[in-house]
Design a protein that fits this description.
By secondary structure, the protein is α+β, with helices and mostly antiparallel strands. The chain has 21 helices and 47 strands. Strands 7, 8, 9, 10, 11, 12, 13, 17 and 18 form a nine-stranded mixed sheet that branches. Strands 14-20-19-47-46-45 form a six-stranded mixed sheet, with no helix packed on it. A four-stranded antiparallel sheet has the order 1-2-4-3. A hairpin with a 2-residue loop joins β29 and β30. The longest helix has about 40 residues, at about 385-420. The radius of gyration is 40 Å and the shape is elongated.
């Protein structure tokens, strides 16, 4: 960089000068830590190197102190943690401002440079005077001669200069420690400068080539550094481990665990590397010229696996040392006094944490040392094969070391966050074995009522939004977080549909798919680019295959406020991204703003990957969408595409909907099946498909025929054993013979009317009888009439002569019971000897013998107060999940009761993701049908299994014992008023352990009674 970017005169005592020079000279690069790319960053050791150069001193401790003066004023900061001080190691740091900007810290130092920063925001430089580097007030003082003043700031430098010049002999005796240090440094430098070429006879050196000399020097270097490393491992034992075991510094009750955590298997490392060193020294003594060295490392590669455990424990060790220093004064004093005596004249202080880190650094250095040897090895030399093999083995160990270290750091981070985050009743499950901390950072939540600064955490299972709080009364001091909202599951985050391209006629290209098209809607989605702005008509079902919304440039339509605003508004807009979340407690749209555009992209990438992982994890059900379109039912033919593999949602194309206004599209309202044929009730009539239409409806979607012309068919069902077809149309219930499915004429259309003003009916078994229960419900009362299906004698005779088509409207429905309840009935479930009615008060049990009623829930059970005292919850369904348990499903939650109506499974309560309108049970899964998605849970664990997105979904049929359900979705293929039937079925793989699953589904025949 030019001199314009630093002071014309550098005075190292002024921190502003040092900062300016540091910015100009520190080497910047892009480093990757924990899968995060940090641009324009530098290592702590590089920072110390740069400051040493700036102040023109070889004292790294002095440079480190000055560096910490800079980070104390926020000029330098650690990229990984807040408040961490500068260290002379491989930790990553950045400067507080973008180093690419040609800024000056103090224009007053060079007034002519102020004009170059007119368009930049003002930058305050670090300020301060470092007294140790100030000039002496004496005009005769110089760096070469000793100043008369004992307080001279140059005195240490003068002593060093004199010691070097006069070999320490004439420096005053009060500098003994410094003299010893200088002598030790010189001796050490002399040893370090000693190479193979300095240790062998001259004739040996002259007998080899220059390239071989370099190779032997590289081999000598790896042996020499291995010797030093083994000595350092010995110091760990002699200076720290052994004295701690023999003293009472650490409480005897936790001494063993402390030693194991802090030192781990350091003694094993010493044994392994001592053997390696012994082999290297033996090879070196064989001859002056070492022939090969790769075979030694190959033979020891297996032993180096002990480093995996050590590296995995390293962060625990570092953490325990820091905690013990804060809590144990004796231990802190012990570390402060730890010294190693190398000879009678020298005492050198060593840091425990620094020594414990050396094994990790040593393993990485093997690759560099072996590479230096390999580069100087002839092509036909054995080491050309042996060294790469050794390097591969070491790289494998290093990879496992990194994995182990990452897991350890992840666990420590999770343990810290489990104490720092106050989650209330929400269980974040941070301490589960496989839990992962993915990412965290500050985001601004944009709200109409005012922006909110949040700290957002991404774990592998949840997105957690928190507020930072300072609780002075808390037991744990330091940073604390409190949940801003309930945690968000990634499956509940919708992806935004990419904008459709329109043709000149105004129709989107996806409105009318070609016959050969098969549209596979990926559950993963992709992170949206700048053009992924959602429109108002975007549906959750279509959004599944779209992209998580990132706000950016306009993609058509009315201009946004940001596109018309100032440059600042546009810049702010590029920093934002939006998440649309479904669900009861956390549903809504969240717009976040990151600090930088690259930061926004990192957030979106992480969230998209986590969402994709959850949606693709362990598919249990497959959904075949658009098995039948409402406009294909007897209106026009269709040519559906085949159904491919099993994914969360599969959309199969069909022909375009009718364009002629004379053709009508009818809404699908209900469906059932009979002998493998699918029967569909609509607003305009009843339709039936051919044989096989139930198994694969889409393959027969052009073969459905209309058998009855009736309006508003809201419910249809079949009693196959008695050959009856029940149709509820416009609140009137009719009974037909099943022969109408095969032939339609005046005889087969004869029917019996079972009642009018009926809201719904329910089929069930009661003591071997097939019952049809009709419900005429009103807000304050309900009349329930029950029929028993029977076969008359005429029908039996006609069966014997195989003349079923001559059957008319024989009276085959016998009145069984009729009663009244003073509430509005919403659902009916049959038990073995009783019937359960869902109503606003909850679930009521009716004895069909005496017609007495009682509440299903035991009012004496205090644990049920959460539902007994509430009047705003709606009971929807009840399922038997085991021989002794029943799952009660309300619109807000679900819970378990036993046969006596008392709470089962303790306080276990399932909170639905949204507000389900209906439920289905396919053992062992409960399917909750929300308006725009289907949430599937395992009834044994109550955990999420899968989220299936559909548009305006409605459950039509869920027959107990089947491995599928049928439903309808509205607004597919770009037509808001068109419906499509779908089939959601359990995948074969998910039923491999079917024998171990409960065999009973919805409360029907064979179920044992509740409360008897």
């Amino acid at each position: 960089m030019s001199s314009l970017h630093q002071p014309p005169y550098l005075y190292p005592a002024f921190l502003s000068h040092v900062a300016a020079a540091f910015r100009a000279r520190v080497p910047l690069a892009t480093h990757v830590r924990d899968s995060v790319e940090h641009r324009f960053s530098f290592l702590g050791s590089e920072a110390v190197d740069t400051i040493s150069f700036v102040i023109n001193s070889t004292d790294r401790n002095l440079a480190l102190v000055i560096g910490r003066c800079l980070d104390a004023q926020g000029f330098i900061f650690d990229v990984g943690s807040t408040g961490a001080r500068l260290k002379d190691n491989s930790d990553l740091y950045k400067m507080v401002h973008d180093p690419r900007s040609p800024r000056l810290f103090a224009a007053s130092l060079d007034p002519s440079s102020a004009e170059t920063a007119e368009d930049l925001p003002p930058v305050d430089p670090p300020l301060g005077v470092f007294m140790l580097l100030t000039d002496c007030y004496s005009p005769t003082c110089s760096m070469e001669d000793l100043c008369y003043s004992v307080a001279c700031p140059r005195r240490l430098f003068q002593l060093q200069s004199l010691a070097t010049k006069f070999k320490i002999s004439d420096v005053w005796s009060s500098s003994t420690v410094l003299q010893n240090q200088i002598m030790s440094d010189e001796k050490k430098r002399a040893e370090e400068d000693l190479w193979w070429s300095n240790t062998v006879p001259k004739e040996v050196l002259e007998s080899v080539s220059k390239e071989e000399e370099k190779r032997q020097n590289a081999i000598y270097d790896i042996i020499k550094t291995e010797r030093n490393y083994v000595e350092e491992l010995k110091i760990i034992q002699s200076l720290y481990a052994n004295p701690l075991r023999e003293s009472n510094i650490i409480d005897i009750n936790r001494l063993d665990s402390f030693m194991k955590t802090v030192f781990c298997n350091a003694s094993e490392l010493l044994n392994v590397n001592s053997k390696l060193l012994a082999k290297l020294l033996a090879r070196q003594k064989e001859t002056n010229i070492v022939e090969k060295i790769g075979d030694i490392f190959i033979s020891c590669a297996g032993d180096l696996k002990v480093y995996i455990e050590y590296c995995g424990n390293r962060e625990y060790s570092r953490n325990d040392i820091a905690l013990e220093k804060n809590q144990n004064a004796k231990f802190k004093e012990f570390l402060a006094k730890a010294i190693v005596k190398t000879d009678s004249r020298q005492e050198t202080k060593h840091e425990l944490d620094g020594y414990l880190h050396k094994p990790i650094a040593r393993m990485a250095s093997y690759l560099l040392l072996l590479k230096a040897i390999l580069e100087r090895t002839p092509l036909d030399h054995p080491d050309r094969i042996l060294i790469p093999q050794a390097t591969t083995a070491i790289q494998e160990v290093l990879g496992k070391m990194n994995t182990a270290s990452g897991k350890t750091m992840n666990k420590i981070k999770l343990m810290q966050l489990s104490q720092q985050i106050f989650s209330g009743e929400d269980d974040l499950k941070l301490l589960e074995p496989d839990r992962q901390h993915i990412y965290e950072g500050k985001l601004i939540l944009k709200r109409s009522a005012g922006d909110y600064e949040l700290t957002v955490f991404l774990f592998d299972n949840l997105l957690v939004m928190t507020r930072r709080v300072n609780d002075k009364k808390a037991e744990l001091k330091g940073i604390r977080y409190k949940l801003y909202k309930h945690p968000i599951r990634y499956e509940l985050i919708l992806a935004t549909q990419e904008p459709k391209k329109t043709n000149p006629a105004g129709r989107t290209r996806t409105d009318f798919p070609r016959k050969s098209d098969t549209i596979r809607a990926s559950p993963t989605g992709t992170l949206g680019g700048e053009g992924s702005t959602p429109t108002a008509s975007t549906s959750p079902a279509m959004a599944v295959g779209g992209s998580i919304h990132g706000i950016g440039k306009s993609t058509g339509g009315p201009p946004s406020i940001h596109s018309l605003g100032s440059t600042e508004a546009k810049v702010e807009h590029r920093l934002q991204f939006t998440l649309t979340v479904v669900g009861r407690e956390v549903g809504g749209t969240y717009t976040f703003q990151a600090e930088t555009e690259s930061g926004r992209n990192i957030w979106r990438e992480h969230i998209n990957k986590l969402r994709s992982k959850e949606l693709l994890r362990g598919w249990t059900f497959s959904m075949h969408q658009r098995a039948i379109d409402s406009w294909n039912l007897g209106v026009n033919s269709a040519t559906p595409a085949g159904i491919g593999g099993s994914v969360v949602i599969m959309v199969n194309s069909s022909n375009a909907p009718p364009n002629s206004t004379s053709q009508q599209s009818t809404k699908i309202l209900c469906c059932c099946s009979a002998k493998g044929r699918l029967i569909i009730g609509t607003e305009l009539g009843l339709y039936v498909g051919p044989n096989g239409s139930l198994e694969n409806p889409s393959a027969h979607s052009d073969q459905f025929v209309q058998i009855l012309e009736m309006e508003k068919i809201s419910q249809v069902d079949v009693v196959e054993e008695h050959s009856k077809l029940l149709v509820l149309a416009d609140k009137a219930l009719y009974s037909y013979n099943l022969s109408i499915l095969n032939e339609q004429n005046d005889e087969t259309r004869k029917h019996k009317t079972l009642g009018e003003g009926i809201n719904f009916f329910k089929l069930g078994l009661y003591q071997g009888r097939t019952l049809v229960c009709t419900v005429r419900a009103a807000p304050l009362s309900s009349t329930i009439k029950i029929f028993e299906t029977v076969e008359d004698s005429n029908l039996k005779k006609k069966k014997r002569i195989a003349n079923l088509l001559s059957w008319g409207a024989a009276d085959t429905m016998k009145a069984f019971k009729e009663f009244y309840i003073p509430t509005e009935a919403s659902s009916i479930y049959f038990l073995k000897t009783k019937m359960v009615i869902g109503c606003p008060k909850g679930f009521e049990i009716v004895d069909l013998e005496t017609l007495e009623t009682q509440a299903l829930l035991d009012p004496s059970d205090d644990s049920l107060d959460f539902v007994l005292v509430r009047e705003d919850t709606k009971p929807i369904a009840i399922f038997k999940t085991s021989e002794t348990e029943y799952l009660l499903c309300y619109d807000e939650f679900g819970f378990y009761v036993d046969r006596m109506g008392r709470r089962a499974r303790g306080e276990k309560l399932i909170h639905w993701a949204g507000k389900p309108q209906s439920f289905a049970y396919i053992a062992p899964y409960i399917l909750a049908f929300e308006p725009n998605f289907i949430c599937i849970r395992n009834v044994q664990t109550c955990e999420f299994v899968q989220i299936v997105y559909a548009n305006n979904v409605k459950l039509l049929q869920a027959t107990p014992g089947n491995d599928y359900v049928l439903g309808v979705s509205i607004g597919q293929a770009g037509f808001e008023d068109r419906q499509s039937l779908f089939k959601l079925h359990l995948l074969t793989e998910a039923m491999d352990d079917e024998a171990d699953l409960p065999s009973v589904g919805v409360l029907v025949e064979g179920d044992e009674d509740l409360r008897h």
